Amino acid sequence: MTQVMTTLPKKCLPNNICGGVLTATQVALAASFWADDPSRFSPTSLEAYGHYYTEQCRTFYRSLRATLPVTEHQDIMDIAQRVKTLGATRQELIQFLEGKYPDLQTPAGIPKTDIINATADLVTRLLLMVDVGTATIAPNRISTGRAFRCWTEGTIRNFTACAFPVQRSNRHDGIQLTTDFNARNLDLIGGFRVEPTNNLLDHLDVVDIAGQTIVMIFHHASFLKDQQHGNFPDGLVHETLQTMALLFPQGRYHKERLYDQAKPRTLRQWWNDRREGSQWYALWVAVGFTVFFGLVQSIEGALQAYKSYHPTGEGS
After folding, report:
1. Of 223, 272, 217, whose CA–CA distance to 245 is shortest?
2. In sequence order, what DSSP letters do the residues of 96-117 get, joined into one string?
3. Which of these, 263, 258, 295, lies nearest to 279 by C-alpha position?
């Protein structure tokens, strides 16, 4: 009978996925996943990704409550190589995992196919920093509103092409951004609160949580710089790096989100929203005239009320 474990062991070997990731292991993972020259990584450049990697592995470990097919970092690197280097399709990857772990035992209530698919999803998440999975394995993504996609067929490149479609509208082409466009002014103009995200699908997504407008910014620059060629659609990585610096999309993938989803709501935000100069002046001229004529009417009404209570004597 398989022992069911719901918490991490108190002691984990350095090469076990349930433990922390040593710097040397981070470099080995990065070299296996994305780069051919690990010497160019600094000790701190992979630290943020190391935290993400550990979080994903521990969530995987806890959520399945099973004796997992992958227990060491090398297991993950071997599977990742089939996805990245050999270009395995989803079906081929599942067949490989089923053949590699034929005697996998599972606790009651979790089919073997779910664990195999969850293993494939874990490796894909670690390769792409994209939330990949199903609602049954990752229910927290629905409750928190985080975007996720299911990889069900084709290669990983086919998957990312569908997950990041090109936005073809040219409605905002030609807009010139000044140095005033920054995270601070996102709050002044649009009422945004900037929040970092580990999910590339969420980059520049605008959500409302408890009345607060939040713009999600993918913040793993070191990860993106190692993705210039490979698993993502052409131009996506370069554009995302630009938006991380500008906080505004000018290319094909993210350019609609801030303009389409961010509208001023308070008086202060309307006053600071000068993206359309002519509309801004027209708005405030109209507001000025409205206030002026409203004030005149109020004064006139007050005078009429005064005269009704203090009529002027006839014949005086």
Report:
1. 217
2. HHHHH-TT----TT--HHHHHH
3. 263
Q: What's the pLDDT tens digit per position in 14-42? A: 577 877 788 888 888 888 888 666 666 67
Residue 105 region by backbone torsions, left for phi larger than 0, else alpha for psi between -120 and 50, else beta: beta
For strand 212-218 and strand 192-197, is the pairing parallel, antiparallel, or unpaired? parallel
Token code pair at residue 146: 């985080």
* Confidence at residue 37, expressed as pLDDT on a 0 to 100 scale: 64
| Cα distance between residue 309 and residue 132, in whole Å | 75
**Class of residue 249 by CB neighbours under 10 A (exposed 0-12, middle 13-18, buried 19+):** buried
Lowest mean pLDDT: which of 64-73, 207-216, 254-263, 295-304?
A: 254-263
Distance between CA atoms of residues 167 and 165, nearest Å: 6
Given a cut of 70, whether residue 77 has pLDDT beyond it is: yes
247: burial class by Cβ within 10 Å (0-12, 13-18, 19+)? buried
Of 118, 10, 103, 12, nearest to 64 (Cα)? 118
**Alpha carbon distance 224, 285 (integer Å):** 46
Tokens matching residue 142: 């629905």
CA-nearest of 210, 218, 240, 211 to 227 is: 240
- Side-chain-side CA neighbours of 225 within 13 Å: the count stands at 10
Q: Are 203 and 243 in contact (CB under 8 A)?
A: yes
> d(Cα 138, Cα 146) in Å, to the nearest integer?
11
Q: Residue 206 is inside which H or E element, if any?
A: strand 206-209
Residue 12 has pLDDT above 70, yes or no: no
Q: pTM to 2 decimals?
A: 0.69
Residues 6 or more apart whose Cβ sits within 8 Å of residue 11: none
